[in-house]
Amino acid sequence: MKIHIIGGGNLGVAIAKGLSKFSQGNQITITRRNTSSILYLEQLGVIVSADNKYQIQDADIIILTIKPYQVDTVLAEILPVISNKVIASAVSGLSIENLQNKIGASNSAIRIMPNIASQFGASATCIAFHEKDKEKAQNVVALFQDLGTAPIIDEKLMDAATVLAASGTAFALRYIRASMQAGIEIGFDWQTALAISAQTVKGAAEMIMEEQIHPEQLIDRVTTPQGCTIAGLNEMEMHGFSSSLIRGIKTSLKQIKG
Ligand SMILES: NC(=O)c1ccc[n+]([C@@H]2O[C@H](COP(=O)([O-])OP(=O)(O)OC[C@H]3O[C@@H](n4cnc5c(N)ncnc54)[C@H](OP(=O)(O)O)[C@@H]3O)[C@@H](O)[C@H]2O)c1
């Protein structure tokens, strides 16, 4: 497929890199106004351009990874030269209905919420679309399945998906940082503490995804009666470990809804 990514910033670049590595056989184009910082992507076989219209007529999927206030400018540029296109938008807060109204009935609006782990084939990309575009959306779903998991969700959960999957990356990183800081306090240099903390989180996540079971079942396997793990867990919970995370996620959602 020919994938045309408009907005070569944090997310657009992560998707381009991920596609070049984990989704073979596609032709990827990425655009931004100032291309100097992303020209290196050409070494990965990605076409880099400052022209949003560059070969856009050939694109099977157009991915928007621009800020909300940049959408109208970009659409004004590309709409006169496209029709019958699938436009997958990662733009936060832009509803399918609003996008569909902007792009006209001849194009299909799909909403996606990837995260920057797309670069490593490890994104959780929630996808929503209207029933009329079900078939056209399948290519988008398949593409993002190559970059991790790609659950199809009801659009009304898109804000929640933004918090859980996109902001969630920062929440998980903050856990790793805290674990690293504790690791330093109990005797490791920061590099070793970081490597252990990150790999431990990766291992825990892989076990859950592989075995598809509730985390508490795996926790049971790690917690010996009267052992050090349950003592540490209970101490953390007494200081609000789970509840502070839950409260943080709910606060993020409140913020997004305005
Ligand atoms: N970052 C994430 O983890 C994440 C996750 C999910 C969703 N999102 C959403 O994805 C969108 C992009 O986020 P981001 O963090 O990647 O932002 P970003 O780093 O600021 O990237 C936006 C890019 O768009 C380019 N751009 C601006 N105007 C343009 C135009 N007229 N034509 C072509 N390119 C243009 C900018 O480059 P130039 O100024 O050089 O043109 C910039 O590189 C946002 O709506 C965000 O909410 C982000």
Automatic annotation (TrEMBL):
NADPH binds at residue 52. GO terms for molecular function: pyrroline-5-carboxylate reductase activity. Residues 155-255 form the Pyrroline-5-carboxylate reductase dimerisation domain. One of its GO terms (biological process) is L-proline biosynthetic process. Residues 2-91 form the Pyrroline-5-carboxylate reductase catalytic N-terminal domain. It catalyses: L-proline + NADP(+) = (S)-1-pyrroline-5-carboxylate + NADPH + 2 H(+); L-proline + NAD(+) = (S)-1-pyrroline-5-carboxylate + NADH + 2 H(+). Pfam families: F420_oxidored (PF03807), P5CR_dimer (PF14748). It is found in: Cytoplasm. Transmembrane segments: none annotated. Its EC number is 1.5.1.2. Belongs to the pyrroline-5-carboxylate reductase family. Catalyzes the reduction of 1-pyrroline-5-carboxylate (PCA) to L-proline. This is Pyrroline-5-carboxylate reductase. It comes from Flavobacterium xinjiangense.
